[in-house]
Design goal:
Chains A, B: One of its GO terms (biological process) is copper ion transport. 2 copies of one chain form a homodimer. The first copy, chain A, is an alpha+beta fold. The first copy, chain A, has one domain: Alpha-Beta Plaits (2-Layer Sandwich), CATH 3.30.70.100. The first copy, chain A, is 33% helix and 32% strand. Chain A has a 4-stranded antiparallel sheet. The model of chain A has no long low-confidence stretch (mean pLDDT 97).
């Protein structure tokens, strides 16, 4: 299991938390949004997922990974 | 049809817009959120709905009508 913390722009409320954490769960990762910090801590299996796929899942929800 | 514009706190993103406009639609009113202005313009039939019911529908979504 690999852990990364991504800086994500545009997250502003509980709905945003749910959409991002839900999208990560859908692809088989586990995410925890820190709204005030503007970050998403992600745990994922490197044999199953790439960091690119993680970022894409977040960006598809309408947020920018910076 | 009566039109009122309410000042609402806590609306921050597109999900918020959808949740408030959806809640108003559910009770038979029509709402338009102005995120940057922090307002919700509501059109409703006074013979069917009260302003109290309108405010409650918004507050039930987790926002404060001020």
């Amino acid at each position: 299991m690999k852990n990364v913390t991504l800086k994500v722009e545009g997250m502003s409320c509980g709905h945003c938390v749910n959409s991002i954490e839900g999208a990560l769960k859908t692809i088989g990762a586990s995410g925890k949004v820190d709204l005030s910090g503007g970050t998403v801590a992600v745990a994922y299996d490197e044999s199953q997922l790439t960091i690119t796929a993680i970022k894409e899942a977040i960006e598809e929800q309408g947020y920018d990974v910076v």
